Amino acid sequence: MVAAATILAAVAASADCGRCHVAHLEDWRKSAHARATSSALYRLLATLSRADHARAGQPDDDSCAACHGTEDGVGCPICHAVAGIDEHQGAQGRARMKAAPPDTYFGPIDGPAEARVHRSSASAIHRDERICAPCHDHDVNGVPCCTVLREWRASQTSDFMTCQSCHMRAVAGRNAARDGPSRTIHRHRFPGSDDPDQLRAGWDAQIREAARAGPEVRVTVAVKNRAGHSLPNGEPFAGSVLLRVEALDLAGNALASDERSFGFEMLDAAGSPTVLRGRVARRGASSTLVSGETREERFRLVASGAVAIAVTLWHVPFDPPPAARKWMDDLRAWMGQEKGKENRAWLEEIDGSARSVDTLARPRLFWRLSRSL
Ligand code: HEC
Ligand code: HEC
Ligand code: HEC
Ligand code: HEC
Ligand code: HEC
To answer: How many beta carbons lie within 10 A of that of residue 263, not counting itself?
Structure first.
């Protein structure tokens, strides 16, 4: 197999490509792909993973780079210095990338203009889901984990939409600002759960029923997944989506409220929820919605005097179950006892990233509707 990181090491960094591909670089810099090794959450989990291996006396785990890349994250060459995809599913259920010849970049354009610094080659795999497969569809320790592509294939959207239709919108623009002709280009922002507009495109909540019954307010909300795969998604943990219903008084204050959370858990060999890939042994409880699914949630709020209800959807980027949090605290304590220099560096990394991770654990509002009673 060719790991993405190996391809990256052999070629240029993304900033170099941006000298000519100005719009692509500007978009990509705001994407999750650009943050794939620098985000606080990644640094936290990569460090925990290394410490976990050290505690167990196992060799260091450097498997993350195969999909997250190195300093440049999932940079331009990782996707464009790829000549083909071997769909054979290996031990971890992954498709493999075939490296391109040196200095040749593969993309969707037939007969591109000449680029002074590299050769170009048209490739069909960049126009469909195959280029996403090596990273966005795999098993962990034999457990189907990040199965976005399999879910999309099973959904009706795959009849008429690819990953690119929803994540790389086509717009009129200039491909290479200096030398290239005007063309239809594809946005490289890759919006996901980090983008409120994309979240609103993926989720829908409608009030089916809202009525007073004595001191109670009865509410039924229909939540729908409008994306091309299950939501929420992720590996091995995902953020979660929170549905909140509030009964409001005349001044708009909440008299009573209730919540439902959508997400899933991965369990370790002992059956405890885990956030570490290395520990995944099976899937646990799941309340994710498959593509196109609508789920009705019923609420009964005790709120006499309520005059209206408000329904909101929130995204929680990092939402580890209590047992997983406790496990992280235990590992941190172990590092505190160990005297080695490496442990100190790990502790600093963990404490630094954990502070920003706390902000990630805060729910972010992306959908709101209300109705008077
Ligand atoms: C000196 C300017 C320049 C630099 C630097 C540059 N390119 Fe290009 N690239 C071009 C031009 C010009 C084209 C052709 C544009 C067209 O026909 O619309 C092109 C085309 C491409 C294509 C489309 C190929 C196809 O057939 O679909 C890809 C992909 C690409 N470049 C990737 C990269 C990557 C990755 C880097 C950085 C490692 C890079 N380029 C650096 C000028 C450049
Ligand atoms: C995660 C994979 C991925 C990354 C990272 C990526 N690209 Fe692309 N790029 C694609 C795909 C897929 C297409 C074709 C989309 C289509 O045709 O539907 C594409 C298309 C292009 C094209 C052809 C013109 C167009 O927009 O269709 C150029 C040029 C290009 N990318 C340059 C870059 C540069 C420069 C970077 C880094 C700043 C970059 N790409 C990062 C996947 C990627
Ligand atoms: C080399 C591996 C790789 C390839 C190829 C790749 N991705 Fe990604 N992608 C990642 C990683 C790693 C992340 C998580 C980055 C982070 O947030 O740390 C990610 C994140 C994303 C996200 C944001 C997810 C979120 O939680 O909001 C979207 C959307 C996405 N990718 C779409 C695509 C699409 C569409 C393609 C194919 C055109 C693609 N990716 C190809 C590795 C890859
Ligand atoms: C019909 C449109 C559509 C198609 C097709 C589609 N997606 Fe998405 N995807 C979305 C929307 C909308 C979201 C944002 C919802 C969210 O993250 O909660 C999303 C979110 C994601 C996420 C983040 C998931 C999460 O819960 O954080 C990833 C990763 C992703 N898509 C990758 C892909 C890949 C890879 C493909 C192709 C196999 C694909 N998507 C096909 C619409 C689509
Ligand atoms: C087979 C490919 C693959 C490997 C190997 C891999 N990841 Fe990921 N990782 C992904 C993809 C794809 C996503 C985006 C998933 C999504 O949002 O649906 C992701 C997302 C993440 C996220 C969430 C990103 C964020 O900022 O929200 C973290 C953290 C993470 N991975 C950590 C790791 C660590 C640590 C390792 C190594 C122990 C690792 N990953 C190995 C593919 C991989």
So the answer is: 21
Q: Which ligand is nearest to the CA of 317?
A: 5
Q: How far, in Å, from the CA of 22 to the mean position of ligand 1? A: 11
Ligand 4 pocket: which of 145, 160, 167, 235 to mutate (most atoms within 8 A of CB) = 167
Ligand nearest to the CA of 277: 5
CA-closest residue to ligand 3 atom 33:
132
Instruction: Indicate the top mutation candidate among 11, 125, 136 to test ligand 3's pocket, ranked by most ligand atoms within 8 A of CB.
Output: 136
Q: Which residue has the tokens 């600002």?
A: 177
**pLDDT classification of 2: cutoffs 50, 70, 90:** very low
The answer to whether 123 touches 106, Cβ cutoff 8 Å, is: yes
Other CB atoms within 10 A of residue 228 CB: 25
What's the Cα-to-Cα distance from 68 to each of 8, 35, 58, 118, rounded to whole Å?
A: 11, 9, 22, 25
Task: Please name the residues in contact with 108: beta carbons below 8 A apart, sequence gap of 6 or more.
Answer: 122, 123, 126, 127, 186
Q: pLDDT category, 144, cuts 50, 70, 90?
A: confident
Which atom of ligand 2 lies at the shortest distance from residue 29's CA? 38
Instruction: To the nearest 10°, report the CA torsion of 246, 316, 188, 355.
Output: 140
Q: Which of 111-120, 166-175, 265-274, 291-300 reaches the highest mean pLDDT?
A: 291-300
For residue 245, give the nearest of 372, 368, 373 by alpha carbon.
368
Joined tokens for residue 275:
């956030």
C-alpha–C-alpha distance, residues 42 and 46, integer Å: 6
Least-confidence region, from 126-130, 252-256, 304-308, 351-355: 351-355
Ligand nearest to the CA of 262: 4
Q: Which distant-in-sequence residues (6+ apart) come within 8 Å of 94 by Cβ?
A: 133, 134, 137, 138, 139
Up-side HSE of residue 231: CA atoms within 13 Å toward CB?
Answer: 25
Amino acid residing at 268: D
